[in-house]
Amino acid sequence: MATDEKIYQILSKFDQDKTRLMDILLSIHEDQGFVSADDMRKLSESLGISYAQVQETATFYHFFSNTPKGKYNIYLNNSITSVLKGRAAVKEAFEYYCGTAFGSVSEDGLFGLFDTSCIGMNDQEPAAIINDKIFTNLTPFRVKQLVDDMRKGLSAEELMYEDFGSGNNADPDIRAMVTNNIRKKSIILKKDYEPFSFLTSKLKTMSPEEVIAEIEASNLRGRGGAGFPTGLKWRFGRRTAGKHRVIICNADEGEPGTFKDRVLLTEYPELIFEGMVVAAYATGADIGLLYLRYEYKYLYHFLNRKLTEMRKKNFLGESIAGMDGFDFDIRIQLGAGAYVCGEESALIESLEGKRGEPRDKPPFPVEKGYLGYPTIVNNVETLATAVKILHHGAAWYSSFGTKDSLGTKLLSISGDCRFPGIYEVEWGTTLREIVAMSGAEDVQAIQVGGPSGMIIGMKDVNNMDNSELMKWYKPSGMMIAEKFFDRKLSYSDLPTGGSIMIFDNSRDLLSEVVMNFMNFFIEESCASCSTCRNIPLLMKNKLQKIIDGHGIRQDIYDLLNWGKILKASRCGLGQTAGNPILSSIFHFRHLYEQRIQSLTQFDSGFSLEKATEASRKYLNKKPVFHHF
Amino acid sequence: MENTENKIKITLDGKTIYARKGSTIVEAARENGIYIPTLCHFEGADPKACCRICTVKINNRFMTSCTTPVSEGMEIENNTEEINDLRKSIVELLFVSGNHFCPTCEKSGNCELQALAYRFKMLVPRFPFSFPRKEVDASNPKIVKEQNRCILCKRCIKTIRDEEGRHYFAYKNRGQHLEVVLDPVLGADMPDELAKKAMENCPTGSILYKGKGFEQPIGTRKYDNQPIGSEIENQS
Ligand code: SF4
Ligand code: SF4
Ligand code: FES
Questions:
Q1: Interface pTM (ipTM) of the complex?
Q2: Rounded CA separation A379/A248 (Å)
C-alpha cells in the first residue's frame, strides 16, 4: 500500500487527470509492484471516478496486480515457438529452483512466476521478462544461474553479465541481451538514408495535400496486418474538423510470432519518429502518441532520449524545422499487457486510461478518436516506410513488389528453421522462397499472419471437400500446407502483418500448435462480446474431445459452424479467434479425420468409468457398465 | 401517406422503409413496426454492442444494428435464416455460459433473456452447458448481485451513475474471468430509487433489490402473457 504522500505525488505528476490512469497505475507499480485496494480507493477519490472504475482498468491488464508480487517477477513467454524451443524444461527449472509454481509468488516473497503471451522474442526463445529486463535463449542451466544470482540479491541488470545483444541493444539506455537477427535488408532496412533529411529539405517544398497525394500514389497500405490504404487514412483524418488532431504510432506489436517492430524501434527509431512528424504535417495533427507495449519497456528510456534529441534540433515542438505554425510533439505511452490493445480503437481507450476494449465502428478513429479528436493510427513499419517513399518518390517505390502489392514487407520468421529473424522481402515472395532463405527443413506447415492468420501445410494430403467452408470463410491468418507453398505473400493472395512461423514434421499441429493459439485468444479476449467471450473456449474443448479420441464427424461440422458465429464479433480478435481451428481444418482436414471415430454417431466425450473410478476404488465395487 | 420529409430511404429485408436521419437501424426498424431483438442495448443510453444479438447483414458484413446509423440506400438483411440462427445461437451461448434456472429466478417472466429464448424457440442449446462456479454477492445493503445470471451486458454500467457521472457498476478482469461488480464504496449508500432502477434496467435476474423479488406473481408478468417484441410488431 502506497503512502498518501506517494500517491498524491503521482497524482499531481499527472494533473489528477483520469485519462492518465494508465500512467498513474504504472507509476504505482513501478514504486511498489502492485496496486492495493486502498490505493485504488485513494485514486478514485482524486480522479472523480468510482473505485469500481479504477479497478476496471487495473484488473484488465496482465502486468498489473492487486496483490504484492515477488521481489523478482519472472514472466515466461508461452508462445508456441517458446514451447517448441524447450519452454517446458525451462519452466520446470524455474519452479524447481524458485520453489514455487507458475501463477504464484514464492512463500519468502522472493519470486513471482507467471506465464505471459508472446513477448516479441520468437527468434531467441525461450525468453522471459524478469523485472522488465529481457532474458533470451534460456536453458535449465541458465535458469539455475539466474536463480542463484537472484538469491544473492543481484539486480535484474546485473543478472545479464553485461552480455548485451547486437546493435543498439548495447546502448547505455537499453542494455539488453536481445539480438536483432536482421537477415535480409531491402529498401526500408538499408541504412542509406540520413535521418530527418526529408523533414529538413524536401518536406518544406511540399504542401500537406502533396504529401498525401504522394503516399496515395505509392499505394502504401497499413503494415500492421489490416492493410488499409495509408494515404486514404491520412486524407480522412485531415478532412475531419477538430480542435486537435492526433497521430498515434501503434507499437503494441502483440501478434504472436511478430517482432519486426521491436527491431525497427531498436535500430530505426528516427525513421519512425520522422514518419510521425511527416504524418502530422500531412494531416494537420498537433498531438503525437507512441503506444509502446509493456513487453518493450526496456526500450522506453532509449526512445525518450531520441525524442529529447529531436526537440533539441527542433524536429519536435513549435515551428518544426523552421516551418511556421507547424507544432507537434510526441509522448510515449506504455501499455500494461493486453494483446487486444493492438486494435486501434482499443489502443485509444487504453490511452484514455480505460480498459482496452475496442469501440464500435462507425465512428472510426479518423472521425472520433483519442479524446474525441480525429485520430490517425499507423503501425511502426508503415510510418518508417512512408518516410522512405516520400524521400525517394512513389514512382521509385512502385518498382518493388507486385502489381497489387507494391514495395516490401518486413517478415518476422521463427519456429523450425535455422535462421530465424527479420527479413525484408518484396511482396510476391513465395512460401517456398521463405522456406529456403530461412534454412527450414522437413517443413510440415507454415503459419502466416500469426494465430489470427492461417496455417499452410507441406504435403498434398488434404483432399477433403472444403466447398462448404469456402462459402464464407476467408482466413486472414492461416496455417498453410505444402501444396500451397507456391502461394505468394501479397494483398490478393496471402496478406500478412509479417508473422511467419514454421513447423516441421515432428510437430503435432493440433495438440501443440492449434491448442496453443486457442489458449492465446481465450486469454486475451476483452470478453465484452458474447461471441468472443464464449465460442473460442467451446471450440477448444471440442478440439480437445477430438484429440482425446472421442470425436465424431459431427464435431468437425460443429467447429465449422461455431467458428462462423465468431464472425459477428466486434473486433478482429474475436472475428479471427476461430482461425487456428478453421484454417487447420481447411488445410489439414486429414488430421481431424484421422482422430475421429468414423463409425460412431454419438460420443458425449464423457466416460462413466473414469468419472466413477475414484469412488469405485474407495467402495471396492465393480459395477457393470452397459455399453450401447 | 406518411411524411417522408427529412427522412431517408433504406431497405430492410427487401422492404423499403423511411428512417429518421441520424437514427440507428434498431430505432428505424422499431419506428416502422419491425422488431430487431436487442439485449445489451438500453433505450436512452449510449449503445455498446456487447451481446451481438441485434446483428444484421449489410453488404455481406455483420453489423450491430443498435450502433449503426442508417444511411441513404442502405440494404439490410434482418429476418433471414442465417441471422435468426445466429441470434438463437447467441441466446444459447448466454444460457450455457451462466447458470440460469428460470423456475427459481425472481425475474422469471420479466427477464428478457428468457423471453428471447421463447421467441427463438430454444429447446436444448447446441452448446454444452459449462455450469460455472459463480458467486452471489449480497454484501450490499440494498442489492443482491447474482453473478450466475449476469450476461455482462453493461446495461447497469451505462445507466446507473451518480450525479457526478461515477459508475456504480463496472467490469472487472477480462477473458474467462470477466464479471460485473457493484462498487463497494459508492454502493454502500446507494439511494433507494437507484437500486430499484438497477434491478429494472437489468435484463436478467442478476440485480435484485432486496426484499422485492416476488412482489408480482410469476405468471402475470410482462412476458408471461405477451412475447417480447410484440408491442412493436402489433403497434399499428
Ligand atoms: S471481439 Fe473479443 S476482443 Fe474484440 S471487442 Fe469483442 S470481446 Fe473484445
Ligand atoms: S448485472 Fe444485469 S445489467 Fe448488469 S451486466 Fe449483468 S445482466 Fe447486464
Ligand atoms: S443490442 Fe446490439 S449488440 Fe446488444
A1: 0.96
A2: 8
